Every structure is written in structure tokens, then in C-alpha cells.
Task: structure prediction
Amino acid sequence: ASGGSGGLNGTAVEDLRTLLSAALTNIDTCLDGLENTTGGFLERMQVALGNTTEFTSNSLAIVTKILSILSQVNSPAANRRLLAVPTSSDFPSWLLAADRKLLEDAGAPAKADIVVALDGSGDVRKINDAIERVPKNNAKRFIIYVKKGVYAEHVEVDKKTTNLMIVGDGMDVTIVTGSLSVVGGTSTFRSATF
Result:
């Protein structure tokens, strides 16, 4: 977490805090997915993950304290704006230049390979139908454009569906909703819409 001058880089520390928080969430989600197992498997997994959970939690507390100290000394690096327009340096080094350009482009959407529209004006009416048409282990980016509407379906993307990008008209107009819940017999792990 050091910058070019040898000091702490607030952005890198904030990224580390995000990753540690995600790790704790993933541990909880993993354990939630094991709730209905038998033979003491859940309990054995809880014991096995005990140290991992404790170390991750302690690391998160340390990183949070570092960020608190950085903000007290008015370090501009600690005051990152998450909703700011990304610059090329905000992307990971493994991201290809063409993909950076695609993500940075706020203008016209990229040309879609398949269009999903509830009203029938697209190639298909359901997102899952579009995903079924995506070539498996695809080497090039495959773009599905989902027009505005409320899509009541549980979207499944399998591991062999690679290089897939799904684009909508906006979070308030292209809505994907499902009805999976623990009450209905679905584990928390399997209840996500996507």
C-alpha cells in the first residue's frame, strides 16, 4: 500500500479494506450455503474457517484504523470518490485497453450481439434465452443488450459462458427480479437474481 513516494496510498488501503470486507462476506455466504447439510459438515467447516475469519476480521480492523488516521491528517488520497468517472489508472493492470475503452465510454452503447426486449422488438424476450445463444468458451466479447422493462426471471450464467457483457438501459428502467428466497426453500447462496 505504498505510492511512488514511499508513503501510504489511501486508494490502495481503501481497496484492501473492500477486499477484506468482501472476503468476510464470502465466508458468511459459504456457511449459509451449508445450512441444510447433514453429518456435522457445517460445524466442521465453521471450525476450519475460524482462524481465517478471525485473521480477516482483525486485518479489516487494522486497515480501517489506518484509513481513519489518513483522514485525520487530511490525506487527499484517503478521500477517494467512488462515483467519480474512472480514469485508466483506476482499472486493474490485467484489463485490456479495448475493455477499458468499453467501460469508460459513456456515449452510445457498444453494438449488441443479441437484443432482449419484452415487447418482442428484439431477438428474444428473455435474458436466459439470450444467454443460451452465447457461444461456450467464447474468445471475443459477447454483448447482450436488455431493453427497458421488468424481467421476472432468475438469470443463470454457467462457467463455460465466458466474455459475456450484459448491458441495460439503466438501473431504474431495466430491472431483473426473481422470487427466490429462504422462505421458498432456496438457500441464501442460491437466492441472487443473477
Remarks:
- Residues 10-78 form one domain.
- The radius of gyration is 21 Å.
- The first helix runs from residue 10 to 33.
- The first strand starts at residue 114 and ends at 116.
